[in-house]
Design a protein that fits this description.
The chain has 176 residues and is an alpha/beta fold. It is built from seven helices and five strands, in the order H-E-H-H-E-H-E-H-E-H-E-H.
Length: 176
């Protein structure tokens, strides 16, 4: 069985495990929930599973192969991450355009190219519209995972193009 780092989200983990085992995930996924519930960890589990080189799909992510180690260290060429930064802590349209250019290429090492957009509620409206274009016409072999504390600040058209998983609070015993 694959080694997932996410804890306390059994139904979300079951969905991610199915996608990893099948080798296919939704082209756009929105992980929503309060801060600290494991949205980014779950996104990284999914990405590691999709990039993993283990022969048995049920053993992905193995956390031992070259691809899993590259995902863990943040230097896998087919995994892109975007997070707020700079003035105002927003994700600007230029950053999204650069991401789109990177995702337009064929995968270098993995079966898919992936992007994790952390704190997607911090995408400014122009950046959301640029991302919308990708989600409407996603190239084959591209998976985009957005994490957000709330979907209220995201465009409805953006949310509708994503499969959504809501993550809830995790019990203290599980965190310990």
């Amino acid at each position: 069985m694959g080694e997932f780092r996410t804890r306390g989200q059994p139904w979300a983990l079951a969905a991610v495990r199915r996608w990893v085992t099948a080798g296919r995930a939704p082209h756009a996924l929105l992980l929503a929930g309060p801060e600290g519930v494991g949205k980014t960890t779950l996104a990284l589990d999914l990405v590691a599973g999709l990039c993993c080189l283990a022969d048995d799909p049920a053993a992905r992510p193995c956390r031992a192969c070259v691809a899993c180690r590259k995902v863990e260290h943040g230097n896998h060429p087919d995994v892109h991450r975007l997070a707020p930064g700079g003035a105002g802590g927003q994700i600007q349209i230029g950053e999204v355009r650069a991401l789109l250019n990177g995702l337009a290429l064929l995968p270098a090492e993995a079966r898919v190219r992936t992007a994790i957009i952390e704190h997607a509620q911090r995408l400014n409206p122009d950046a959301q519209n640029a991302l919308l274009k990708l989600l409407e016409d996603a190239p084959p072999g591209v998976v985009v995972v957005l994490t957000a504390e709330t979907r209220a600040l995201l465009l409805d058209t953006l949310v509708r193009r994503c499969q959504r998983l809501r993550l809830g609070p995790v019990a203290r015993e599980t965190v310990a």
